[in-house]
Amino acid sequence: MRLAAWAVRDERTRGRVHAEPGHPYRSPFQRDRDRIIHCRAFRRLMHKTQVFVAGEGDHFRTRLTHTMEVAQIARTAAACLRLNQDLTEAICLGHDLGHPPFGHAGQTALNRCMTDHGGFEHNLQALRIVDALEHRYAGFPGLNLCWETREGLLKRCSRRQARALGDLGERFIRRRQPSLEAQLANVADEIAYNHHDLDDGLRSGLLEPGELMEVRLFRESRDEAAGRFPAADGGSLASEAIRGMIDRVVSDLIETTGANLKEAMPEDADAVRSRSMPLVGLSDPVDKRHRELARFLTERLYHHPRMQQEYARGGAVVDALFNHYMNHPDQLPGRLSPDRERGAGALARAVADYIAGMTDRYAGRRCRALALDS
């Protein structure tokens, strides 16, 4: 497929931190994708919470299945928009590598624990993983990914943190945009978790099909499904409605972004980066409905008493483990043991690296083994 002028081109990559020869059969971004898929942090996503604690039910999404769904949505859109599909896929597959156990509850708890030591942000942690923490290759630390893939993993960053990242963090200081492929991965992530969290909420019984009729996007899609399948039961209609919602939003994403690009006509990928506002996005009417869905999920699912109990338990596990390893640094794995002369900040970051790499079940096992689960 011929790429659009504004797509990131394989031959124009800014390269890797550690120079490597090219591969005879795979492009740089195909190699990035493959390195992410084969790394340990990617495999651990299978046992990390998306919304419902991993292991609570066999059919609830995990960080791994969510990641695959994001990549599927984004790659489809990238093909339609003639963007670099391999780069888009690599960014999507790596975007959640830095998530700690227990979903956003784990992120909140670990960030709280790290308040005096620079905080914790899972996008920055993903970058730490691919740049340094993965140990798979003899010639360099981390995965040695291309600059453009690393750019895409960095969804948000404070100006203070950005200054420490050199040219990778420059856009957060200058308030500029990443590549279209990175923008697309960001929006695909939002589409995936909003619609699939809705699906899991229904499966769990915490959400009822009737209350979803309050959400305009769902109501419109369900009414359309009922017209096509008048004999279908409520569960089947709900599933059809969610499928229709995703199709409608992704189609709108492709059409709206295509129109934005046709109007802006950026000369190349660097012209995209120089803009102050993103070019990838939804139309105003669909964006309004999508935001309404997000608010509904926050109020009815994420703030549901049962979910709050799960979040509290997960956060307590993270708190207990952090405090334990700060007081017993000798129990950290040898590869993470910090130089004691570097002080409490280095120790706290090592502890955060260790906990962030844990799966839900491993964190629970460590708590029990250390008698911290009381």
Distance between the termini: 58 Å
Helix-strand pattern, N to C? HHHHHHHHHHHHHHHHHH
What is the highest CATH level, the class?
Answer: Mainly Alpha
What's the average pLDDT?
94
Helix count equals: 18
Radius of gyration: 21 Å
Total strands: the figure is: 0
The CATH superfamily is identified as Hypothetical protein af1432
**CATH architecture field:** Orthogonal Bundle
What characterizes the major β-sheet?
none
Approximate strand percentage = under 5%
How does the SSE layout of this entry go?
Layout: H1 28-38, H2 40-44, H3 63-80, H4 85-94, H5 103-113, H6 122-133, H7 147-153, H8 159-163, H9 170-174, H10 180-204, H11 209-212, H12 216-228, H13 234-264, H14 269-273, H15 284-302, H16 305-327, H17 344-356, H18 360-369
Helix pairs in contact: 1-4, 3-4, 3-10, 3-13, 4-7, 4-10, 5-16, 7-10, 10-13, 10-15, 12-13, 16-17, 16-18
Textual characterization of the structure:
The structure is a single chain. The chain has 374 residues and is mostly helical. The chain has a single domain, classed as Hypothetical protein af1432 (Orthogonal Bundle). It has 18 helices and no strands. It has helices spanning 28-38, 40-44, 63-80, 85-94, 103-113, 122-133, 147-153, 159-163, 170-174, 180-204, 209-212, 216-228, 234-264, 269-273, 284-302, 305-327, 344-356, 360-369. α1 (28-38) packs parallel to α4 (85-94), α10 (180-204) crosses α15 (284-302) and α12 (216-228) crosses α13 (234-264). The longest helix has 31 residues, at 234-264. The radius of gyration is 21 Å and the shape is globular. The mean pLDDT is 94.
